[in-house]
Amino acid sequence: MSLSLAVSPAFPSALSPDAVVGRLRRAGCVFAEDEARLLFATARTDRELAAMVRRRVDGLPLEHVLGWAEFCGRRIAVDAGVFVPRPRTAFLARTAVALAAALEAPVVLDLCCGTGAVAVVVGAEVADAEVHAADVEPAAVRCARRNVAAGGSVYEGDLYAPLPAGLRGRVDVLVANAPYVPTDDIGLLPSEAREYEPLVALDGGADGLDVQRRVTAGAARWLAPGGSLLIETSERQADRTAAAMVRGGLAARVATDEELGATVVIGTRGTAPQVDEASASR
User: Fold this and answer.
1) Torsion of CA 69, 71, 77, 78, to 10 degrees
2) Which among 15, 20, 178, 209 has the fewest CB atoms less than 10 Å away?
């Protein structure tokens, strides 16, 4: 099937749409025609197109080749070596938007933010939201700061550690797309993820829940009364994620989107004031 594209005369015949589709297909790209359209639309010169095709054929994730990913209808910058936002995470973002939009001037925190995609969507769709994000990976933080820009604040550090003390007890919606792949399953991931995305963004420990447990254990101290913690997880891990939230003092429920194959566990803090154990002991 020929690819219908208006191609500049600057592109030599070796870089014709059909030729590019053929190379991508031989490299194992399932959606070769769609990828070719994106490559032609993004490349500014024949030299740039040739380099992009070569990098994609060599196995680099398409989003790293393009320098961006489409997420919830927005173009999110994705730098090399940064975790690529997955389509299923749109459910996490939409759920966060729905909860935040029901509040006046909500405070939203995106932990393990990667590119900051969820923070960007919430900030764009909830006009009066105060948006914060954090990640432990320096490359991800640099990328998230570009994406979030003036729409919020991005911190570098491990989970809650880099957050300003003034956020404690004020967060209305806390979103965490923490790594949840069990260590022994990392080898089963597509080579694009294994080779080009940071292990810290993928490896969730022996059962995939190590980072999630740390998030749930500390969430109640940062959530406002009635605030919600949203964690993306897998269907088979959802019950254990919910149990971790309950141990952290939250009421938990599971939400799913069958079309996206997405599962989000939502934990809600009670409306009674949270007691700071350290302060209470003084």
Assistant:
1) -50
2) 15
Q: What are the tokens at 239?
A: 């019950």
Residue spans per domain, the chain: 13-58, 89-280
Digit-coded pLDDT (tens) for 107-131: 999 999 999 999 999 999 999 999 9
pTM: 0.88
Q: Report the interhelical angle of 17-26 vs 32-42 (nearest 10°).
A: 130
| 115: nearest Cα among 75, 59, 166, 158 | 75
Listed residue (105, 38, 114) closest to 77, CA to CA: 114
Superfamily of domain 89-280: Vaccinia Virus protein VP39 (3.40.50.150)
Residue 103: count other Cβ atoms within 10 Å of its Cβ: 17
Task: Report DSSP letters for 199-262, one per residue.
Answer: GGGTB--TTS-HHHHHHHHHHHHHEEEEEEEEEEE-GGGHHHHHHHHHHTT-EEEEEEETTTTE
